[in-house]
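ok so heres the complex, two chains, lmk if somethin looks off
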Amino acid sequence: MLFNSIEFGIFLPVVFLLYWALRRSRRLQNAFLFTASAFFYAWWDWRYLGLVFFSAGIDYVVAIALERTEAKARRKALLAVSLVTNLGLLGFFKYYDFFVTNFNEAFTLLGRPLGLSTLHLVLPVGISFYTFQSLSYTIDVYRRQMRACRHPLDYFPFILFFPQLMAGPIERAYHLLPQFQAPRVFNEAQARDGLRQILWGLFKKVVVADNCAYFVDMVYGDPSGHTGSAAVLATLLFTFQIYSDFSGYSDIALGSARLLGFDLVRNFAFPLFARDVGEYWRRWHISLNTWFRDYLYIPLGGSRGGRWLVARNTMAIFLVSGFWHGANWTFVIWGAINGLYFLPSILRRRHRRFLDVIAQDRVLPTFFELRHLVVTFVMIAFTRVFFRSPDLHTAWTMLERMFSASLFAPLGLPYTGYLYECLALAGGMFAVEYVQRRKQHGLQLEAGTPRALRWAIYLFVVAVIVAYAPMGGAEFIYFQF
Amino acid sequence: MRRFLLHALLFGLLALAGIAGYIWHYRAYVPAPRITNNISLNAKLRMLKQRRGQPIHLLALGSSMTLNNLSSRAVLEAFHDSSYLNMGAWGTDLAQSFELAEDIVPLVRPSVVLMVTNLGDFSANAERYVVDSTRMANYLVKWSEADAYLHARDAGYYLRQMELNAVRMNDAGNYERLVFDPWGGVQLNVPKDRIDQERFDKRPPRLDELSEEQYRALERLAAYLERRHVRFILIQSPYRQGVRSVTVEADVAAHKRRVWTILAAHGHRFDDGTDALWADSLFCDYGHLNAQGAYLFTRHALAE
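and the predicted structre for the whole thing:
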């Protein structure tokens, strides 16, 4: 079930009403959330529901077993069971065909063809997200950073929680699990803000991302048939599209959870206003980046040790992060370029230069900030060529077009009126988020704002969504990961 | 909680009232059920559904070349038969026309199929629409109109297209005009001052930009109609005088030879609309004729 579908528009209010009708019993609420979440997932493909249960079930049992034993070797073995099961499933469904294809090609080059056949498996939606969430739970229990959860009606809804099941945020057990173990009280202010966040998320997804997608798909679908200027524009539009798509999804997820009395971790903190790559990565897909920091970067040694060790660790998390996004060399290159961007600043210990918000105490950024913002935006947009291209050939063709004389040729794209509308919509979102950059989301209005004005703004956003919603609801990009 | 629910309900009702007002305003322009993702074909399917049971001896298939350049008046004059339906729709390439013919011809059982094409219909089509035969058959035979809307529910599509349809139906000088004559034809009447210069100056695709798949589709279509004993007349649509050059002429000649060979092998007829010069004033762009041009062209082509 997509967040931007009529079905979800019916599902969420029904779940909301039934869930709060059961507020006298926390366990009943959890049981209901578990059922609703399973239904939500099964709406996409019920056959893969078993996979979620299996993955979560293994970690449930492993965590309890970890708590019952003090023997080091046994604890390590139990953790290995969780890691092998979870990463094995992820590897099989997501990377099997990739490795088989690459092994076949490599051995064919060496004159010893393997002839292994690919399986063309359908990637279970959300597997990269719930696997990491479930893994973080067993690792934390193994590290004795938290206690194992005994009650299945606390644990399973935590893994299956529908707002974040498909594409995160990747929650940590220490943050979300206690919320399932505590009674919930309806908080009107929180619920109201949840609705606003859903509305803003829908605007970003349906209005900005899905409309920009039209031109992005057109150019990336036939890069050699377009000019360099069109390639540059499509890449800039994709930078807006991917941000609006994924952060829009996260906004809807956070808003839906808040309606049910849950507080999910923030996944995006206006990364388009980042002033360097370090700041960008602190503001983009926060839940995944902190996951890699805590479970990969720091165990590898983090930024302690010599320069080479720091460089190795940095490149490792960026390469793994790239590979996490998809079984394709384009993602690995995307990760590598980002790693290379980040290396100079971390080696010079300048990666935490910008910890505050842009134009912290001013209306407009300083020239220094603006210059850094533009440079960072262009650098990040460049990496998106690899992120968006379905293969290396497409990426190469896009770059060839961008760096050819046709960069200065007219765009040559059809429907210029619609193109300007898309640019205006993306610009509008950019402007609103700039104004709201100190808040949690674009529609978080000041408490003192008159109700009539607030409602007029909400109704305006609804009207724009209705007017600009493209035909058919497009899937969220991050569902493919 | 009660206050929150009340406010949420009130807001929901306000938003719904806004949407309802919008729908009411554009109620006359609700598009046909979304059976395919081509709005003009959907409108044509609805027209065909409404004419089920009535004989259709002459059936026209194809792209906007058939939709806009085939004058219904000239067809009726040439065939002296009013049991005619133009099923031409925007963006229908040869491969799709073949798929459509396979779905529609058995239902309609025409004795003649007409088609107007130019080189563009044979080029690789980047924006192909999906022809789902089962869905189409269900719509034409089984589903009521209300059922069809339920099966093809897509609120975003209907809301967006209502507004666009209002322009397509009220603005006579629009390139996307979708007001059909009783036989399904649409003649364009774009005033001189509203001619889109980019469209007007556009060059026809080069020979190497044409797709083998489209020629194979024409071959399959010709064979299919031959098997069903349906006479097939394909008419080559002209380009305006201003875009005709030595290169264009050579490409068109080579293309015509190939099309003629395919049709002749199956005993079908090829009418050439490019054997005369067509003044720029008869065109709305490089290849779409205006009403006067369409009438003169159709009469000329069918008279041969």
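quick notes: The mean pLDDT of chain B is 90. thats all i got rn
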